[in-house]
Amino acid sequence: MSALTLVIGNKNYSSWSLRGWLVASHSGLAFNEQQLALQAADFKQQVARFSPAGRVPVLLVGETAIWDSLAIAEYLAELEPGLWPTSLLDRARARAISAEMHAGFQALRQQMPMNVRAVGRTVPSTPALEADIARIVDIWESCRREHLRQGPWLFGRWSIADAMYAPVAARFRTYGVSLPVLAAEYLVTALSDPALLDWAVAAQEEPTLPSSEVGLPN
Fold first, then answer.
1. Strand partners, 67
2. For labeling, which of 57, 135, 153, 167 is most exposed (least CB within 10 Å)?
3. What pLDDT does residue 2 have?
4. Is pLDDT above 90 for 188?
């Protein structure tokens, strides 16, 4: 197999980079990491060397580029099928909620940007934001109710679906979102992932991006 290199952005702010990185880390496959600073004046020129879409993350497989977090996850799952649930129906549902995260929740993304190292932030509530949070809580709780006996993750054991919702867990912590019991338990599980903890340690050392520092205490 060709060597794998994952090109990512800032660990504190780049939610899509986090998703791709978590899948790569949980795959057990060896990969190199190359980080590009989102705040760099020449970021667009740098990322264009790797991705025709001009975004991170990008997985380089030898000379071939795979961009988009879900595409990266699916490629890695071809190499390590255990990244998706074992049951056919669970795999389908895991893909469905992953695609829903991939395509939706715009209010959450815009009003609660990921900021891994920040805590105690507050942002104004809006109906769209409340609807996004309610839908995520419904996803988390319905998955957990069905898989309580299989383990603590959305489908019992860790899967790509958990990577897709990891940045949401970070957001809920940053902005102090109140959650019902099952969702709150899953939040603890997600935030305790050793891979995510390693990512968060690295995020502590990065420069600040003012545009993503929202909800600062008065």
1. 58
2. 135
3. 73
4. yes
Sketch out the chain's domains with CATH numbers. 4-81 (3.40.30.10), 84-202 (1.20.1050.10)
Share of the chain above pLDDT 70, in %: 99
User: What's the pLDDT band for 1 if we cut at 50, 70, 90?
Assistant: low
b (16+ CB within 10 A) / e for 128-150: ebeebbeebbebbbebbeebeee
What are the distances in angstroms from CA 69 to CA 20, 111, 156?
A: 5, 21, 22
